[in-house]
Amino acid sequence: MKLEHLRLDNFQGIAHLEIDLGGRSAAIYGDNGTGKTTVFNAITWLLFDKPSTGAKNWSPKTRGANGERHNMEHSAVGTFIMGSGSKVTFGKTLREVYKKKRGSMTAEYTGNTVDYYIDGVPTKEKDYTATVARYCGGEEMMKLLTMPDYFPEAMEWRKRRELLLEICDDVTDDQVISSTKDLADLPGYLLKPGTAGQHYTVEEYSKIAKARKSDINRQLDTLPGRIDEAHRAIPTGLPDRATLEARLAEAEKTADAIRQEIAGIQAGAGDAIQGALAAARAELAKARADYTRRASDATADAYAALREIDSAIHAAERTAEDKRAETGTLRRNAERLTALRESILEEYRDAQAVRWDDTREVCPTCGRRLPEEQIEDMRANFNQRRSEHLAAINARGRKEANKDMIAAIEADIERLEAEAAEIDRQAMEQRERRQAMEGSIAKAPDFETTDECKEITRRIAALGKQAEDAAAAVEQATAEADARLQAVLRAEHDIRGQIIGVETAERQRARVRELEDQEKQLAADYEDIERGIYLCELFTKTKVSLLTERINGKFRSVSFQLFTEQVNGGLSECCEVLVPAEDGTMVPYATANHAARVNAGLEIVATIADHFGQEMPVVVDNAESVTKLIDTDGQVIRLVVSEPDKALRVEVA
To answer: Which pLDDT does position 443 carry in this prediction?
Structure first.
């Protein structure tokens, strides 16, 4: 793709400019500020909507001394020749938008809009962008192919590295391993545990191995101290286990014998005395029960009569309470009927007080007196309704609340109250009778005052004293035997503690052997992991050599540093462009002179274009400082600072 023709109108200070290149390389001369970079900006704005400088908030508008100029259209149109020979024209025009606010006579500037054209036909932005991308690739590709400094300077180094690997093909792990016999053992280290054919990548295994190496180092650092601690924890000066177990068996046998002795002392001690004491207490209880029964039999008839009187009193009280409850209900009915009668009488008096209204004899519409015949009819109707209303009220009063009904209820109330009073009087008589009968019943003396009770109680006290003396003797004998038992149990406890010490010593010796075996295994593992890490580092260095050789073989003079050696001897990825200096040494792109950087950029652009089969016009800014550009098949547009040229001058190759 090559630029054939470019036309600018009101574009960043250029009122009108047409450049006809015919798809050939060219040099554009001009003093500072004459618009060389503006031409470059127009090309990038047409292709990927950004200026060549990458500046943000950039606008193609023309600016004056007082800011942006308004009411102007700013456009760029470029015609490009494709590799097939066909042509396509891309055009963009920025216009200002003016709108009238409600109530205003003048339109106000509200923003900008951009119109898009393909071969002069208006099109939507997304269709325009898609078409440009189809011809030129995406924004990244267009920057790579139009700006010599984009790849070595502006592009992020990881993306540079990815692009180089895509162009030159990455070296596979198998290719690296097979390139030297020193890496023959590496696949065995990369094999994932528990699998037959699954492998880690070299990078994955290296991370795992280094982490494992650090872990083993930490364990090896702590193991000597742990082994020494386990040695110090072994108890010393203990008898052998068989002796201790024999002593324990003898102590347990002695303890069992003493326990049997204590059980013999406590079993049967004072049994005869306890039996006699229990029999005496049972005799006392029986005598008390017999005495109570005899006293109860003597007063049984009198208490039966008292119970009959109590029953009669309770029945009378319930009957009197029922009559009082009925009296309350009747009294509430009488009050309700009296209130209803008073309400009906009040309604009757109100109806009787209603009189004929003379205002009804006058027409409410015209205000004239109605005819006498009509007035008489109205009066008759009024009197008839009044009489009927009074009769209805009177009938309701006779039916619902007449004097006889109220008098009958009041008579029932009086009767019930009299009956209740009579029942209360009879109940009072029964209470007086009961009190007199209860006072005549003779009470028997308490059982404790009888000679029988006193004699049995004396025998119980004597037997209790004998039981206490026997218990004291048993307690003394038991305490002496228990003291001997506790001494044997303490000896037994000491023996068990010594046995635990023997067991602890055995466990600690086993722990020491376990830690020493672990130390040997970790040392062997450490050596094997170091071997694996060495093979990974050898693999990386071998891959660096193969990869660097393959990538640099794609370029004539430019080369690339893809790895840097770290202080610890490891390698870290990078992607630095190296440019040949005048003495033939390779120097970093950033420290090379301008001419070397430009030619290095052109060489990189040519390689990328050749790989992707995509060519675009390459623009070289500040080309006056480069005496000779390298030969390239693509279209190169040089922007040359020339003080004598106060207007742009184009020379086509």
So the answer is: 65
> Does residue 253 contact residue 511 with C-beta atoms inside 8 Å?
no
d(CA 599, CA 84): 28
Q: Which portions of the chain are predicted below pLDDT 50? A: none
* Closest by Cα among 111, 112, 116, 72 to 92: 116
Domains annotated for the chain, with CATH where assigned, are 2-137+614-652 (3.40.50.300), 314-441 (1.10.287)
Q: Which of 81, 159, 29, 144 is nearest to 602 (CA)?
A: 144
- Residue 11's nearest CA partner among 47, 41, 44 is 41
The amino acid at residue 77 is: V
Q: What does the buried/exposed string (b/e) look like for 84-96 if buried means 16 or more CB atoms within 10 Å of the residue's CB?
A: eeeebbbbbbbeb
The two three-digit tokens of residue 9, written as one number = 């109108």
Distance CA 430, CA 321 (A): 17
Instruction: Spell 389-427 as b/e; 16+ CB within 10 A means b.
Output: eeeebeeebeeebeeebbeebeeebeebeebbeebeeeb
DSSP string over 407-461: HHHHHHHHHHHHHHHHHHHHHHHHHHHHHHHHHHSPPPPPGGGSHHHHHHHHHHH
pLDDT digits (tens, 9 = 90+) for 509-557: 888 888 889 889 989 999 999 999 889 888 888 888 888 888 888 888 8
Distance CA 611, CA 269 (A): 116
Q: If DSSP codes are grouped into helix, strand and coil, which group holds residue 544?
A: helix
Phi and psi, residue 136, nearest 5°: -115, -5
CA 545 to chain centre: 50
DSSP-assigned beta bridge partners for residue 369: 362
As a whole number of angstroms, the distance between CA 631 and CA 557 comes to: 13
